[in-house]
């Protein structure tokens, strides 16, 4: 991995490559990827190194959807002295009075509305929408095409699956997972997996 790195993307899988697209579209220079499983190879023409060898002082964004894996990589890279950078694709909309924490990734076509608070290391994937006054705590993932309505709270480590809808004013508890296509009409308990329309619990995620 080059030492003159501007941004290192942690994770060289699908989301990592989407993060690369967002970085390039946003005019950020990317020096390579950090990925244990693919270290020593190349991805999209860039070198893939080991996360525990990533050079201190580089900027990084994690291109992995799993909140748990993202947490592990953030802890490792922060401890090595890398600096998280927030990447917003230029074809995403982030409205006024909305704040994004460190290390966030917002992909093309996402619409993040007004007066939203987004914590650190959150991801809003392509064509997802987040409504006014909503709060995303740290390490939340909103998958492609999901619609999170206004004044919703997504607690830490929540994932909202592709095409799911979370109705206005609801709270989704920490670590919960909203399945693809679900319509959430009630608060979701921490750690709960919900599917269907209206969404109903399946089993706790381990
Ligand atoms: C909800 C989810 C996490 C469950 O995953 P899982 O625990 O591995 O569940 P399984 O695939 O073993 O399915 C268990 C049961 O739930 C059903 N199920 C799974 N996901 C469902 C969903 N989104 N909506 C409705 N039913 C669903 C399955 O059909 C299966 O039913 P069955 O027992 O009657 O056959 C997952 O299916 C999901 O929706 N993930 C989000 C995917 C996504 O949005 N990816 C974006 C990639 S960019």
Automatic annotation (TrEMBL):
Gene Ontology molecular functions: acyltransferase activity
InterPro entries from the UniProt entry: AcTrfase_PglD-like, Hexapep, Hexapep_transf_CS, PglD_N, Trans_hexapeptide_repeat, Trimer_LpxA-like_sf
Keyword Repeat on entry: yes
Keywords: Acyltransferase, Repeat, Transferase
Annotated catalytic residues: 132 (proton acceptor)
Protein's UniProt keywords contain RNA-binding: no
Record site feature (Increases basicity of active site His), residues: 133
Domain PglD N-terminal, first and last residues per copy: 7-74
NCBIfam families: NeuD_NnaD (TIGR03570)
Protein name (database record): Acyltransferase
Lineage: Bacteria, Bacillati, Actinomycetota, Actinomycetes, Propionibacteriales
